[in-house]
Amino acid sequence: MSQFNCKVTSEQDMLLLGNMYVVSRALHVIAEQKIADLFESDRPKSVEELIKQCPMSSIALKKLLRTLCPFGIFKENNDGTFSLEKVGQTLKSDHPSCMRDLLFCESCRWNSFGQMAQSMQTGKTGFFELYKEEYFEHIAKFPHLQAGFDSHMKAISAKEDPIIAEYLPLENKKKIIDIGGGKGGLIKAILEKYPDIIGGVFELPGVAEQDLESLSRQYRQRWEIFSGSFFNAFPFKSDALLLKRVLHDWDDASCVQILSHCREALEDSSSEVYVVESVLEGKEDPPLLRIFDLLLLTVFGGVERNVEEYASLFKKAGLRLKNTIFTHAGMSIMVGQKI
Questions:
Q1: What is the CATH number of the domain that holds 64?
Q2: % of the chain exceeding 70 in pLDDT
Q3: Residue 21 belongs to what domain range?
Q4: Average pLDDT for residues 121-137, to the nearest whole number?
Q5: Which end of the chain offers a freer environment for a tag, N or C, measured as fewer CB atoms within 10 Å?
Q6: DSSP letters of 122-189?
C-alpha cells in the first residue's frame, strides 16, 4: 500500500474509495476468524478445505477471499483454489508484526465511526457516544482486546525503539523515566546504548507487570518501576523524562496537565523532557498519518499535531521547546526544558 495511488481521478475511483469500508471490514473478519492461519503452508487450498475449519458458508468465504485478491492479500488460482500472498502472511497469528492482533481489536474502533458525524457535533468521541466510556477504559475490561492492543504496540516499538534510542541526546544524563512506557522496550534500548544510565518506567498499576519485573531482574540496579497515573503528580524526580506516543491520544487540556507534571518532575533547569510523536508537516503529510489523525479524534479524543502546536502546549505547561530532532523512524523528538 506504500505505492498505492491514493489520489482520486475519476468517478470510478470515487466509487471505489467510497466503498473501501467493505475492504476494511473484510480484513477484520479475516483476523477475527484466523483465516490466514488456515494456510499453514505454501500449498493452495480450496474453499471446501477451508470451511472444514472455518464457521462460514462456502459461498460467503469465497466472496470474502475474492474481495481481497485485488489488494494482494489472497490469490485465486486457475483451478479455483486460493493462496495466501506474501503480504497476507502478516495476518497470521504468529507473524512478528502482530497485524492480526491490531485488526482483531479494530471491531470496536470500527463501530465508533458509525457515530462520527454525531461525534463532530457533540465534541465527544464516537467511541464514547457508542460505549459510554473511553477506549482505554473499555479495552481494559476485555483481556483479549487489551492483549491484542499491547502486542501490536510492542511489535511496532520493537522496530522503532532502537532507532529512537540512537537519536536521543542522553550523553550527559544520569536517569531517564519513560512516562506511560508500557512494557519497557524503549528504556531497554536506551540502557543497551548507554551502559551508565539508569532507566525506569512509570505506568498504571497492573500494566505489563510481568514484562517490567523481568527487565528489572535483568538490569537490577539500573532499572526502576513506578506506578501511578500521569494525570497526578509523579512520585519521582529525574534529569530526563520520555513521552512516546502519549500526547497524541489526548486533547490539549489533558496534554498540558501531563506536561505540567513532567515539568515538576524535572530535577533542574538543565533537565529535559523528550516528546516522541509523528508530527504533521503540511500538505505533503502521508495519507496514513492523516487517517490516523481522524481515527484519534473519533476513537481516542486525541489529535496529531505539528511542531508549532506542540511548542504551544509546552509553553502552557511552563516548558520551552529547545529543539526538534527528526528521525528516520517516521517520528520526531521534541526536546523541552523548564522556562
A1: 1.10.10.10
A2: 98
A3: 11-95
A4: 89
A5: N
A6: HSS-HHHHHHSS-HHHHHTT-HHHHHHHHHHHHHHHHHHHHHHHHHS--TT-SEEEEET-TTSHHHHH
